[in-house]
Design brief:
- By secondary structure, this protein is mainly β.
- 12% of the residues lie in helices and 33% in strands.
- It is built from one helix and 19 strands.
- It has one helix at residues 146-169, and strands spanning 2-4, 12-13, 18-19, 24-31, 36-37, 42-52, 57-58, 63-65, 71-74, 79-80, 85-87, 90-91, 96-97, 102-103, 108-109, 114-115, 120-121, 131-135, 138-143.
- The strands form two sheets. Strands 1, 2, 4, 6, 8, 9, 11, 12, 14, 15 and 17 form an eleven-stranded parallel sheet that branches.
- A hairpin with a 2-residue loop joins strand 18 and strand 19 (138-143).
- It is globular.
- It comes from Marinomonas arenicola.
C-alpha cells in the first residue's frame, strides 16, 4: 500500500486488516481489526480523521475524505460498495453504501441502513436506523426489511472472509497463458464456477 505521514500523523492499520497494495492511506487514518480495503481505494486523512471500525470494508476505487476537523467514520461491519465517495460523514454500524453512491459532510446514517447504488446523500442529512435511501438527492423510501438486512450481512461476511483470504494467499504473479488442468475453485460461497 502507499502509506504517507503528514504533520507527524501516520496511518494505523491493525495487523488483522487487509489493505490492497494499490490503495492509498494518508495521515490520520485508523483501520481496525478485520477490515478490508480494496484496490485503488484512497483514504485521505490530511484534513480530518477517518476511522474504519471492526470488520468494515471499503471496496475498489472508493474515496474517503473530509473537511478540516471532521471525523469520517465507517461503523462496525459497514459495507462500502465499489466507487462510493464518503466525505466527512458517519456511516452507522452494519450499513451498506451502494456502488457509486456519494455521502456528503455531516450526514449521519443510522445503523443497519441501506443506501442504494448511485444515490446522493446531501450534507447534514440524517436518518433513523434501518432506513432505505434512494435517489438524488437521497430520501428515505421505507424501512429495511429483515430479508434485506440478512442479504447485506451475508455480503459483508464474504468481505470479512476475503480479508483472511487475502492475508493468507493473495500474491502478485504473472498470468498463465492457458487454463490450467484441474483449476482450483475460489474459497467463496459459490463453488460451482467453471471456466469456459
Amino acid at each position: 500500500m502507499a502509506c504517507y505521514r503528514i504533520d507527524g500523523v501516520t496511518p494505523v492499520v491493525h495487523p488483522t486488516a487487509y489493505v490492497h497494495p494499490t490503495a492509498v492511506l494518508i495521515g490520520d487514518v485508523i483501520i481496525k481489526q478485520g477490515c478490508y480495503v480494496g484496490p485503488g481505494a484512497c483514504i485521505r486523512g490530511d484534513f480530518g480523521r477517518i476511522t474504519m471500525e471492526q470488520e468494515s470494508n471499503l471496496q475498489d476505487n472508493c474515496v474517503v475524505h473530509g473537511f478540516a476537523g471532521s471525523h469520517t467514520v465507517i461503523g462496525k461491519r459497514g459495507h462500502i460498495g465499489h466507487g462510493a465517495i464518503l466525505h466527512g460523514c458517519v456511516i452507522g454500524e452494519d450499513t451498506l453504501v451502494g456502488m457509486n453512491a456519494v455521502v456528503m459532510d455531516q450526514a449521519d446514517i443510522g445503523a443497519e441502513s441501506i443506501i442504494a447504488a448511485a444515490a446522493f446523500v446531501k450534507s447534514k442529512f440524517s436518518c433513523e436506523p434501518r432506513s432505505l435511501l434512494m435517489g438524488s438527492p437521497a430520501k428515505v423510501t421505507r424501512q429495511v426489511s429483515d430479508e434485506e438486512l440478512k442479504w447485506k450481512q451475508t455480503g459483508t461476511q464474504e468481505y470479512v472472509n476475503l480479508t483472511t483470504r487475502c492475508l493468507d494467499s493473495l500474491v502478485e504473479c504473472n498470468p498463465l497463458t492457458v487454463i490450467d488442468d484441474n483449476r482450483p475453485a475460489l474459497k467463496t460461497g459459490n463453488h460451482d464456477l467453471k471456466p469456459d
